[in-house]
Amino acid sequence: MDETSDVDVEGLISEEVLREAVTAVMSSARAGIENCGFASRMADLGMDSLALAELIVRLEDATGSFLELRPVVRLDTLGDLCAALHRAGTWQ
């Protein structure tokens, strides 16, 4: 599922902020975490629903948006998540 096709996610949040949030949530040293970006698949990062919920909270704090967890579990990439956050509210 590619949810980013209609949203320029690079203008919404920096990959550095995204990467810091993912790294904080997935603190166990897993290959590729430190190089994640918009195209990174959440499943490939080993992100389960609990980690996803924590990541959403961190990104909500960074953006001022609010997002329900239920629809997010169907998203594929971190870019899809950022696009969903953009559609959910106003970015700071």
Automatic annotation (TrEMBL):
Keywords associated with the record: Phosphopantetheine, Phosphoprotein
Pfam families named among the record's database cross-references: PP-binding
InterPro entries reported for this sequence: ACP-like_sf (IPR036736), PP-bd_ACP (IPR009081), Ppantetheine_attach_site (IPR006162)
Residue stretches making up the Carrier domain: 14-89
Top-rank taxon, per record: Bacteria
Entry annotated with the keyword Iron: no
Identification of the protein by name: Carrier domain-containing protein
Originating species: Kitasatospora terrestris
